[in-house]
Structure formats: C-alpha cells, structure tokens
C-alpha cells in the first residue's frame, strides 16, 4: 500500500535513545487518509509521538467498510525501497501485482509479504467481484542495513501457525509466539501476531522487545487500558507477559520487536539512510528506472510528490 500524501513530510526514526526500558501505556492518535475507491485508512504509525515499534515503521488500519456497491481499495502502481510490506485482512480480498510479475488474490488471515529490498513496484486492488466488507491493516517493516539492498521478493503464506490457550488465540504473522514460528521471512528480531481474546488472558512476551497493540474489533483491555477498534497502544519494553481482557470476542494485532538501532529517513514510500538516497530513488521512479513495471493494472502509476525544501536527515525514533 502506498503513502498517498501529496505533500509527505520526511520522518526520521530509529535509534534506541527514546525506547522505554520499562512498561508504558501510550495511546497513539490516528490520522485519516483517503486511499481512493471509498477506502479511508487510520494512520497510526508514524504518529506525532512515536515513529517505530521494533522494526515496524508504518501502520494503517481500515474498515470494516461496506463496499458492496463500491470499488473498494484501488491503489495504483507505486514504488518501495528499503522495507517489507505486510498486508493483513480480517474481511474482503485484495489482488496484489508487482514488478516481479507476481499476481495473487489473497483473503482474510493470509500473509502477503513483499520485500522491496533495493527496489520494487506494486499495486493493490479490490477485485471486481468482491465480498461486501473490507477490513484490514497494512504495515511496513524497516530493513536493516545488511539486507536493505537485497533482491526484491513476494511471499504468500495462507496457513500460519496458531497458538491457543488461557483465553487467547494467537496466529503468528512474523517471528514467533510461545514457540510457534511464522514461515514469513524476517530480517530482524520481530513479532507480529493476530490475537483473538475472549475473557481474561495473559500472553507471554519477550522482556527485551518493545510492543504495541492495534485493536481490530471488539472492546478489549490491554494491561488495564480500555481500547476500541482502530486504536493503538504503545507498551514499551520490560514485560514478560501481557494481561488482556475482553467481555465477548475481540480481535487485535500484537506488534513488537527488538528496538531498531539504526537511524532512518522515511519519505513517501521509501526508507533510506540519507536525503540524497531518497532523492535518487524519487528520480529513478519518475524516470522509469530501477523499480520495474507492474503489468496487468489498468491505469497510470502514481507520480512521486515533490521533495520538501528542507534537507532530509536521519535522527531519532520519536519527535
């Protein structure tokens, strides 16, 4: 999924200086963005106060939207560099096409994982014939310097491991939960899991990881904080278990990982290390170099916005 802001601001993130070693409960505010086709997303990361959670550097939540008489998600071809995209659905279908020649329609709770590496382009669309509801999340994972120039790749994992017990069910999207390991390729110590909670539960977590939760459906208490759908709570580090409670079934995503030490520059759909690198990527996209062509999409690619007047510099992970 693309960042469709016509005047995107540079986001500087990474480094360990502002990672809390103790548990915190920091509610992140969402900002609404229209993706076209009737799809409005709530952008939760990066936010005014928090830019990363582990290697997770971008989180959009959308739906549930009634698209029975609407085209649904329509995101034209656009580039990515230096990151992985994680597409995750609770309802609906999305057709993914990329410049590697991949074309796939995936559905709820199937992992669609794209590694941009040095450069890739893709498009995402709701199919012409589609289910009446669309609900999901789009997330980005920053690649470490040792892997950010790797070959681009696309993975589809329809069957993911599930851990159940103590009032919670966890489907492992990336990394591992309680010994269950996702087949998705990860380049840093990371975890992503889709949780279903009914009643009181305690989920084991890693004390050296920082965590956040994104509430997808239902009302849930996370470490005593009441959350409604579409909200995201940053939790910091220092926990060995996470208390959860829901009166009735609730769905949420657990995102976490080892704090990302490297400092980054994120602008539009690129993650780099310097402003000059971002500028070269923008020029390559506009000139038709490096990122390739997405075949099978009926429409023009998304042009890159103008670069900001201020220099893009890598700094810390919070404002």
UniProtKB/TrEMBL annotation:
GO molecular function: metal ion binding
Residues where Fe cation binds: 78, 80, 122, 124
InterPro entries hit by this protein: Pirin, Pirin_C_dom, Pirin_N_dom, RmlC-like_jellyroll, RmlC_Cupin_sf
Cofactor requirements of the protein: Fe cation
Protein name per the record: Pirin
Keyword Iron: yes
Pfam families the UniProt entry points to: Pirin, Pirin_C
Sequence ranges assigned to domain Pirin C-terminal in this UniProt record: 198-291
Cofactor notes: Binds 1 Fe cation per subunit.
Pirin N-terminal domain boundaries: 43-141
Family of this protein: Belongs to the pirin family.
Keywords: Iron, Metal-binding
Domain of life of the source: Bacteria
């Amino acid at each position: 999924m693309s960042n469709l802001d016509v005047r995107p601001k540079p986001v500087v993130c990474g480094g360990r200086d502002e990672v809390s070693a103790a548990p915190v409960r920091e509610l992140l505010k969402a900002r609404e963005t229209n993706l076209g086709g009737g799809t409005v997303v709530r952008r939760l990361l990066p936010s005014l106060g928090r830019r990363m959670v582990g290697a997770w550097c971008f989180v959009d939540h959308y739906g549930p939207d009634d698209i029975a008489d609407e085209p649904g998600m329509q995101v034209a071809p656009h580039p990515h560099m230096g990151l992985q995209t994680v597409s995750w659905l609770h309802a609906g279908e999305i057709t993914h096409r990329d410049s590697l020649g991949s074309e796939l329609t995936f559905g709820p709770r199937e992992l669609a994982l794209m590694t941009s590496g040095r450069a890739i382009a893709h498009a995402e669309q709701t199919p012409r014939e589609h289910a009446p509801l669309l609900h999901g999340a789009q997330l980005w994972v920053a690649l470490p310097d040792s892997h950010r120039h790797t070959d681009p790749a696309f993975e589809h994992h329809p069957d993911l491991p599930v851990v159940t017990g103590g009032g919670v069910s966890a489907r492992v999207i990336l990394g591992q939960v309680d010994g269950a390991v996702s087949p998705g390729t990860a380049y840093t110590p990371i975890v992503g899991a889709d949780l279903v909670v009914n009643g009181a539960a305690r989920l084991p977590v890693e004390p050296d990881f920082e965590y956040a939760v994104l509430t997808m459906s239902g009302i849930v208490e996370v470490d005593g904080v009441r959350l409604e759908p579409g909200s995201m709570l940053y939790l910091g580090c220092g926990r060995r278990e996470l208390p959860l409670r829901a009166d009735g079934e609730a769905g949420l995503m657990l995102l976490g990982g080892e704090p990302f030490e490297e400092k980054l520059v994120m602008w539009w759909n690129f993650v780099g290390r310097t402003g000059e690198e971002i500028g070269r990527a923008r020029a390559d996209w506009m000139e038709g170099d490096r990122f390739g062509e997405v075949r099978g999409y009926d429409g023009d690619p998304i042009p890159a916005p103008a670069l900001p007047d201020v220099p893009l510099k890598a700094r810390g992970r919070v404002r």
